[in-house]
Amino acid sequence: TDEKFELYKYYQKVVHSSAESSSELQPEGFIDFLCKTPLINRPAVAPEDPECGFGSFHQMYRLDGKLIAVGILDVLPHCLSSTYFIYNPDYSYLSLGVISALREIQFVKNVLLRSPDSPFRYYYLGYYVHTCSKVRYKSSYRPSEMLCPITLQWVPMEKVEKLLDKKKFCRFGSSDAPRQPPVYNATQLGQWIRSYSLIIGGTPCLLVNLTEESQKRIGGMLHEFVKLAGDEVAVRLSYFFS
């Protein structure tokens, strides 16, 4: 909506010093960044599902009817992922980012209170950059864990912070844990890729539904991705192409 776009522009200009003429402050930039999504929204079906269903959503915060903040959220089968947050800088004194995080944590808790066995039980704050002051706040929410990029173990944030204070990139999983390289089966790779869910221009399809030229081009990209990410991750994703 125009209301969200105006809030987004004001936030980007004041908080991130974006120039008025920059492409990100145009309607198309706003739509590409915060409105388009590769996720397909679907309603809640099972009792343990979040009542809003699954997909991408905008959580709006109003004060006396005025829109002062918007949280951009992905509601996934196992977690609520906080992907971005914009707010009116005139209301910085309200700590709106903290309010939104607590509200989102409570959202997950409410699902578990209603259905204790629900797989929907995690809250993701997204990327963490230890040397960036704008995202360091994420480490203040406890208990929390970070995924070790080498061992793929989840490690308590208290331990991670101490290690990152000394070195920008390091292994913070246990020393006896083996390195976890991506695993893929080359003989089954082609068969799996043909069955992967693709979303092209907003339309779900399979690789075999495409032209021969598109199959070669997109199939090549999928091959490279599987080699990097491994089978376990690759087969659980849908692939979005604009």
TrEMBL record:
<dbReference type="GO" id="GO:0005737">
    <property type="term" value="C:cytoplasm"/>
</dbReference>
<dbReference type="InterPro" id="IPR030700">
    <property type="entry name" value="N-end_Aminoacyl_Trfase"/>
</dbReference>
<feature type="domain" description="N-end rule aminoacyl transferase C-terminal">
    <location>
        <begin position="3"/>
        <end position="148"/>
    </location>
</feature>
<dbReference type="Pfam" id="PF04377">
    <property type="entry name" value="ATE_C"/>
</dbReference>
<protein>
    <recommendedName>
        <fullName>N-end rule aminoacyl transferase C-terminal domain-containing protein</fullName>
    </recommendedName>
</protein>
<dbReference type="InterPro" id="IPR007472">
    <property type="entry name" value="N-end_Aminoacyl_Trfase_C"/>
</dbReference>
<dbReference type="GO" id="GO:0004057">
    <property type="term" value="F:arginyl-tRNA--protein transferase activity"/>
</dbReference>
<dbReference type="InterPro" id="IPR016181">
    <property type="entry name" value="Acyl_CoA_acyltransferase"/>
</dbReference>
